[in-house]
Amino acid sequence: MLKRYFLSIIFSIFIFAYYAKAQQLIPLDEEAYVRQINDQINRGNSDSTRLYNYLLLSEYWAPTDALKSKQALDAVLHDKNKNVLSMGLLNYYEAVYETNQGDKIKAKKLYNDAISILEKESKNKGTLIKSWYNYAYMQVEDKGYDFLVKTLTEKCIPLSEKSRNTELLAYCNTQLGLTFMSVGQLNTAEEFQKKALEQLLNIPEKNTVHLITYLNLVSNYCYKPDSKTAKIYLDKATTLIKKYPNTQHAANYYYQVAMYHTTKQEFTPALENLSKGIALAKIKKQVKMLQMLNFRKYNVYLMQKDYVKAKSLMEDILDEDILTKEGINRKIIITQLATVNELMGDYKQAYQWLKKSSALSDSLQQKKLLEKMNALEISHQTSVKQQTINRLEQEKKENELLARNKNLRAILLGIALGLSLVIAFLAYLNYTKQRKLNEQISLSHQQQLLRIENKRKYDATQALLQGEEQERQRIAQDLHDSMGGMLANIRMSISKDGIGNMNETNDIVQKLDRSISEMRRISRNLMPETLKNLGLETALSELCESMSYKNLHIQFEAFDLSENIPFETQLALYRITQESISNVIKYAQANNVIVQISQNDNLLNLTIEDYGIGFDKNQITKGLGLKNIENRVQLINGTVDITSAKGEGTTINVECYV
To answer: Which part of the chain is the Histidine kinase domain (predicted)?
Structure first.
């Protein structure tokens, strides 16, 4: 159950960062803000002022009321004087609308177009900064958080500093902190949140960025956990919320209050504040915020071991069909229903939910593939259209050239009937010119065919490589989602009901345990995604947790690990740890294992120590496992020392430089 709890906490961090886009920079006094926009529209002092305020109104309604947002946007797009505004502005606000409607392909294109235009203009730098951030945020699913971090640090923050926009500079830093928090880098996240606070000192009047930064700090300290420091920033946020209780950030505020009480294991006030936040989110139609609140409430029920309420909450969410309209959300709900049914001991129902989750995973993968195919089809159609345009332009030039030549010949024939030699000479010149032109056209055509052929080969090669990588990931996912669930369910059923005598039951259970372990090992070897996305420390922690079982406790410790360790070194140390723990499980008969990794300047030290039966190094031949460890150490130019004696356990110490 402890593993399930920590998985739910990790998921809550992810879901909070995933919905960071909901942190709009709308003034806290929203009623006054909307009233001011409508006043500017009604006065209509100038077309530019009137149309720009329509765009602001469209942005305000985009997350909560698609109809009002579209009406305001159309008022600009259909206005005959819309050219008084920069096309970059129009692209940005249209992209905001499409983002909230879920059309990612169209939204990304519009943001990209906005950036291309706004970068060439001296004004509208604030919109350029927001365009870069939103564009990078939409790339997280495909390019990972690295692209978002790179955009914030290389584009948004420098542009904010150059334009001296303190509010956006603080906002970019707090969003950068939120991004690091989403991957578990809480100390780094805290550094950027503190930078945002320093910049906000230059803005004496508390505004939306102050509230967002306070709430992000509350989350960061609750995840550490450090409830004492979290309370400091929660109090600051409370002061602002009391002044503006109707702000769209109020639901997020109650979410943070509940997190604080959850950290202190004060479950009653946590549930009370979550209920307040849920009510506000429903009123303001904040579907994404509603999902955060419901999952936090679900986590509280799990911590209380109130599995009946936890199950009921997930079933109600599924029945409402508000949060589950998106396939990924439905999969999350179904997976959590499988978890809570397992905790309640209803293994049959848990198995049924796992089957549904597996089927939905296949459906989502198919949907994602179709989206990519549609995107490729659009690119192909664009290429075909461009080729058609080029061909028509070429034909036009040829026709114009032929027309000019025809007129020239007619004039020459009309004014020089008696000058046959001159006419013949001119005809010869014209023939030579036409032949060269035809040769140029032929050469151009051949070059075009060659480019098309090279492009086709490139696309085919790229598709083949992508298909190979996707197939590897699908195999690993299928092993984990399908075979893992089935084997686990069979094992639980046999353990609970038994088959025949006890020795036979234990033997089958042991065989299933080994099958499950082998399946997990194969899946992890195929796709160590945690190592790629979250780094060595998080990957080793997860590995130790996954390889622990009832009779084997694995303690993991990490000290001062750098984020700049080469990936090849990270992978080698990960595999060494994996092999060492596997050897402990197979041979050591140990109940406890300590895995410790530390870094001192550029020296890395990895130690795996067990308290098992040990072995005599002089009386044992090195097996494949120990040879694999030594080979991996050699690949990273490191050293390994294996210390063991009968009855005294085994210690493996690896050192390497980075």
So the answer is: 474-658
Q: Residue 577 and residue 595: Cα distance in Å, rounded? A: 8
Structure tokens at 510: 């042991």
Measuring CA to CA, which residue among 144, 67, 127, 38 is closest to residue 91? 127
Question: Which of 55-59, 427-431, 490-494, 647-651 has the lowest average pLDDT?
Answer: 490-494
Is the model's pTM score more than 0.85? no
* Interstrand relation of 553-559 and 592-600 (parallel, antiparallel or unpaired): parallel
Given a contact cutoff of 8 angstroms between Cβ atoms, the answer to whether 248 and 285 are in contact is: no
SS3 198: helix
- Residue predicted with more confidence, 4 or 313: 313
Alpha helices, H only, 19-165: 30-43, 47-61, 66-77, 87-101, 104-118, 125-137, 140-143, 145-151, 157-163
Distance CA(184)–CA(485), nearest Å, equals 27
Q: Which residues pair with 656 in a beta bridge?
A: 604
Instruction: Confirm if 337 and 311 have CB atoms less than 8 A apart.
Output: yes
The H or E element spanning position 642 is: strand 639-644
Interatomic CA distance for residues 102 and 472, integer angstroms: 29
State yes or no: pLDDT of 237 exceeds 80. Answer: yes
Give the neighbor-by-neighbor strand order of the sheet with 603-610: 553-559, 592-600, 603-610, 650-657, 639-644
Q: How far apart, in whole angstroms, are the C-alpha atoms of residue 16 and residue 182? A: 8
State how far the Cα of 289 lies from the Cα of 280, in Å rounded to an integer: 10
SS3 594: strand
Q: What is the pLDDT of residues 278-322, one digit of tens each?
A: 999 888 888 778 888 888 898 899 888 999 998 888 888 888 776
Class of residue 274 by CB neighbours under 10 A (exposed 0-12, middle 13-18, buried 19+):
buried
Type of residue at 464: L
Report the Cα–Cα distance between both ends of the chain, in Å, rounded. 38
- Concatenated DSSP letters of 391-460: HHHHHHHHHHHHHHHHHHHHHHHHH-TT-HHHHHHHHHHHHHHHHHHHHHHHHHHHHHHHHHHHHHHHHH
10 Å CB burial of residue 107 (0-12, 13-18, 19+) is buried
Verify cis geometry, omega within 30 degrees of 0, for the bond prior to 269.
Answer: no
Bridge-partner residues for 180, per DSSP? none
What would the pLDDT profile of 145-170 be if each residue is shown by its tens digit? 889 999 999 999 999 999 999 999 99
Integer-rounded Cα radius of gyration of the chain: 32
Question: Poorest-confidence range of 118-127, 408-417, 573-582?
Answer: 408-417
pLDDT of residue 529: 74
Tell me the C-alpha distance between 21 and 215, whole Å: 14
Helix (H) or strand (E) holding 655: strand 650-657
